[in-house]
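Might you be able to review the protein record set out just below?
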Amino acid sequence: MSRWLRGIRWKIVWLFFLSAALSVATSFLLYLLALWLHYSKGMLPLPTLFRTMERNFGAIPVLSIAAVALFICFVILLSWRHIRYLVQISEAVQLLAQGKLEHRIPVRTKDELGELANNINQMSGQLLQSIEEERLAVKGKNELITNVSHDLRTPLTSIMGYLQLIDEDRYRDEVELRHYVNITYEKSRRLNRLVNDLFEYTRMGYGQTILTRNEINIIELIGQIAADFSLQLQEADMELQITAPDEKVMISADGDKLMRVFDNLISNAMKYGKEGKNIHIKLEKEASASVVVQIVNYGPPIPAHDLPYIFERLYRVEKSRSDETGGTGLGLAIVKSIIELHQGSITITSDEHETVFEVRLPI
């Protein structure tokens, strides 16, 4: 009710009645002043003019004309602030139409004009944000094309080179031939992995990934994944330790998708934590709300300026994008997408002692 009373409609009503009251009161006071001057001071210019008009037109018409003139003056005077504010809003809209979206209108009232100014400010802010997001999207698309082109071209160039050597019989013996074939095969696998990762990330980006949820004991799931890495850990002279509660921790999740998550995180820990020789997986149940899984490695720390971007697509701490020093740059982006599809979250911390990927999933 109070908001309605503060509206511009009621202000116009009050403005009308106030102007009318002030004009009538002022006209009456002027009339009394003119009479007083006429009878007390003699023939002065103002009373003479008033007396002439009164004799020719009558007192009532003269007072009516004066009241109307005063009413118009009071209306203009009392509404001047709102008129100026409306002109200011109009000028601001013209500036926005010219592309100056950073301009803001001061919100000076709580009526419809104030709401209009606030809505225009919100609209310009949203437009500015949309333009910025579009600019970043175009920039991201260009970076994606550049990085993917590089990642595709590098192994493809190697494949073509070795196949040319084989086609031209430029090898000494069968051992060297098999060596060339093996290199070509490994480069082809990298190409296949990159294409598959791109396809999977694109599907997730467009919301085309559907989760097949089942009741899963996450402790058993991680235990199975860790067992699959036993041979690779042995070859890398590394150990993996799991710390978990004794009871089952059941979650509703897509087992295949979560296997990809923890497979990627353990592979990442092995690749970048070789110097530490150990990987530690910690599971903890937080009341009945969520389960926290930490994958810890003790290798070199990730630079602090790289941490905010570690889950972005095609981002790699090692900027040369060499096959030997990193993957496709999509693994962690896919991991983050899968975790978010499960209404969970993933964070990373890194210092000179340890690097920790923390996955939080709802129970």
Summary: The first strand starts at residue 214 and ends at 217. The chain has three domains: 2-100, 142-205, 214-362. Confidence is low (pLDDT under 50) at residues 42-47. The two ends are 46 Å apart (CA to CA).
